[in-house]
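Q: You know discrete backbone vocabularies at least as well as I do. I have my own habits and do not want them to colour yours. No explanation is needed for now; the record alone will do.
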Amino acid sequence: MISSRNIKSMDFYRKIPRDLTEASISGAGLSIIAALAMMFLFGMELSNYLSVSTSTSVIVDKSTDGEFLRIDFNISFPSLSCEFASVDVSDVLGTNRLNITKTVRKFSIDRNMKITGSEFHSGSVSHAIKHGDEADEEYAEGSVPLTSHNFERVSHQYPILVVNFYAPWCSWSNRLKPSWERAAKIIRERYDPEIDGRILSGKVDCTEEGDLCRRNHIQGYPSIRIFRKGTDLREDHGHHEHESYYGDRDTESLVKMMEQLIAPIPVESEKHASSTDNSTDKIKRPAPSSGGCRIEGFVRVKKVPGSLIISARSGAHSFDTSEMNMSHVISHLSFGRKISPRVMSDAKRLIPYLGGSHDRLNGRAFINQHDIGANVTIEHYLQIVKTEVITRGTHKLVEEYEYTAHSSLVQSVYIPVVKFHFELSPMQVLITENSKSFSHFITNVCAIIGGIFTVAGILDSILHNTVRLMKKVELGKNI
């Protein structure tokens, strides 16, 4: 049978009689210091328990084959007309999408990168442009040659002025020339400029009248423009708000187009000079009001190496590569879905460095200086890495794509373009929020309290015994 004395012998926390304990000033001071240390370390441990810790790992990208990558962009081209600006996408799997318009918007801009009007709708031609077969036939010159000296006078004289801006070296211009001259001759015979006075057909050689063509933002040849009397803007050096013709280029189609233009205009009056015929809306559209273009929007691409290409494109125009300047300013370029500022703020609370490279090219300008020469293609090589942040409870906080960028200017024998070559890394960065155990927190708190109490006791014992020894030594000297 176990006696009470045996049970008491198992007491690890034996009590010292009060009359055998001794209070001292040094012990009190050490106790206060120990209590403050306990409070300080407890506060640090509590703060560490409440704070969020993360771990970073690199794993194989878990994206499925059916997922697409979204590319958002906002790029300004001071010297590329919206009339011919085209956004294309290609990749190593054979995808080749040309002139994407559904998710892309274009705005004419001036030299200061400011938008000059509403959205520019380039439209599309539903069929191949038909040309005439009069190349081998003789034809008389029916259109009037226009130069910088007589262009303004003529444009203010006739309610309708239809002008063919061409280049003698251009094959499309040479194919148009017979039909154009025949159509101009027919219109001149039916509607004599001296008697009828409603329409005049003209032509401008852009190799001879470069300033006149640049002033009207001609970048592709041939460009058929329709000028209406009274639409000139005096404060803009006589610039006209005019339209471009994109229809068939055979004689019959050209004559029909011109007759539809003058049909609403009475011979005896020019008060309806600004009237239009809806039947020609599909083949003529407003011409760009300035020589630059801002292209913004997004495209979806497969998650394989590919290219986003911006260039001047047309199936029925030629371009003078020496006059093409693909300088541009990137206002925004990012990959993946847009992340709201609130979500990004929460993500940066966990990982301060997150988001530092998802828009690396934003605000950068790539300008083709005159001393570099013509036919300069500007290429950007982008390496993309996917980053995922997983919070406690396996909740995905954010999925973003960061990238590195290296750019270069390349001399080319073809039409200059801007290329964004992108390649996704097969690896992804996984950032996981780690939860801290409450039991670990309690264990650390107990360790703090016990440790400080023990260390304080040892220090107090040393200090107390030292003081007693010094008193004995002093007492021995006095005796």
